[in-house]
Amino acid sequence: MISVSDLRYAYGTHEVLKGVSFDARPGELLCILGHNGAGKSTLFKCMLGLLKGYSGSITVDGIDFSRLKPKEKALYVAYIPQASKPTFAYNVMDMVIMGTMSVAGGMSGPGEKEKRLALDALSKMGIMHLKDRDYTKISGGEQQMVLIARALAQGAKILIMDEPTSSLDYGNQMRVQKQLRKLVSEGYTIIQSTHNPEQTYVFADRILCIRDGIIYRQGKPQDVMDEKLIKDMYGIDVEMVESADKRVRFFELKEYEDNEENKE
Question: How far is the first Cα of the chain from the last one, in angstroms, to the nearest whole number?
Fold first, then answer.
């Protein structure tokens, strides 16, 4: 489990995080919502050890994360970016093997152990058929799957993901999120930022809403997400429409409806 307690961080005199506290547990997908500038990326950078000088604490399995060396941190936490554009045209297998290098010992290249870890990660993500393909020539959704496989090959059980589906079309967004749910069922902890409340409602176990550096609301999506939340978080008026089986909530812009009525 990863625990964040009273986390505070400032860029100069500008305080970005103002006492953020939460836990993320094994077998849980925690989605973080917040407008641009709310503090999501700063939170992730602190959790990954990329920013120093914060106050409060970040612990993983009860261990003070700030006291660990980079290689030790890599044993616990892996990061999946929105996208990766390598300078060279590596094949998919090579991209995934790179994940093992953060924890491998010595100066030698990847051996059989690293190759086996990479193959296991490709299999877990269901993309073994891509292993010999040029990473730069596969689809955006496939590339995101490869980045997740690279994180799995690292061996960490906590995955931090910064808007991993923001550049993908709807179909690929759903494919990636379904794979994440599969990983959660296998005991992984996934912390994911997103700007898609409907996606969050369907896939997240819990949501954490950050507004101006503090936790505004948190809990199960079904309990927390409503029209007022969207208004307060993003400054837009919406109408919530729930599906017949109450599994999905859709948000329609009221301004759009008003404009359509005025045209008639």
Answer: 55
| Residue 167: strand, helix, or coil | coil
Strands 158-162, 63-64: pairing kind: unpaired
Other Cβ atoms less than 10 A from the Cβ of 241: the count is 10
Taking a C-beta distance cutoff of 8 angstroms, is the pair 131, 104 a contact?
no
pTM score: 0.86
Domain 2-222: assigned CATH number: 3.40.50.300
d(CA 118, CA 146): 10
SS3 (DSSP) at 48: coil
Sheet holding 14-24, edge to edge: 14-24, 2-11, 55-60, 63-64
How is residue 91 annotated by DSSP? B
Domain ranges within the chain, ordered by starting residue: 2-222
* Per-residue confidence in pLDDT tens, the chain, 264 aa: 999 999 999 999 999 999 999 999 999 999 999 888 889 999 999 999 999 899 999 999 999 999 999 889 999 999 998 777 776 789 999 999 999 987 665 556 678 899 999 999 999 999 999 999 999 999 988 999 999 999 999 999 999 998 888 878 888 888 889 999 999 999 999 999 988 888 888 899 999 999 989 999 999 998 998 889 888 888 888 888 877 766 666 677 776 555 545 444
Q: How many CB atoms lie under 10 A from the CB of residue 255?
A: 11
